[in-house]
Design brief:
Blueprint lengths: L1 E5 L4 H11 L4 E5 L15 H16 L2 E11 L20 H11 L9 E11 L8 E11 L15 E3 L4 E2 L5 H7 L1 H15 L1
Parallel strand pairs: 1-2, 1-3
Antiparallel strand pairs: 3-4, 4-5, 5-6, 6-7
Amino acid sequence: MTRVVLASANAGKLLELNALLAPRGLDVVPQSEFQIPSIEETGESFVENAIIKARHAARLSGLAAIADDSGLMVDALDGAPGIYSARYARVGASDGENLQHLLDSLRAIPESRRGARFVCLVVYMRHPLDACPVVCEGIWPGRIAREPKGDGGFGYDPVFYLEDCGCTSAELAPARKNSISHRARAMRALLARLGES
């Protein structure tokens, strides 16, 4: 097995990645195993932030690295909150505060203009100087509901309505959500790319 560092401390993400990548001969370990601190995400796009995180983890671990950056983009808000999804209301805001700020921003917006999508960019960097990292994208279309529903998931899940499912992301069973989400789509694209090399 080849060890790969995950530029995240998210235990759920680690389990999900190991389940996907172990059959490819990759053993994903968290950056905390190397006492790697988080790095400030100073990029102006999802891909820039993912590359910053992957390069940082690869440099400090000496291993290949995987990182992702994701967020919610709302059409009527010109793509906001975007890369600021985790701090849309303010730096240090809770999920509830961010969600309420989003609903307040869209209060006067009609149904026809409430289209949105979750976006995930995942990066696989072979080494810290990798000038051509593998970059894959996953997009999950939906729209913003007028009020939260469901108690699963986190972040904006309670207001992210999925037309084809007839419910919000927070109302989906975890296994179902994890199989159709933006992150799942990005990871499937990554697996396909790694399978080509």
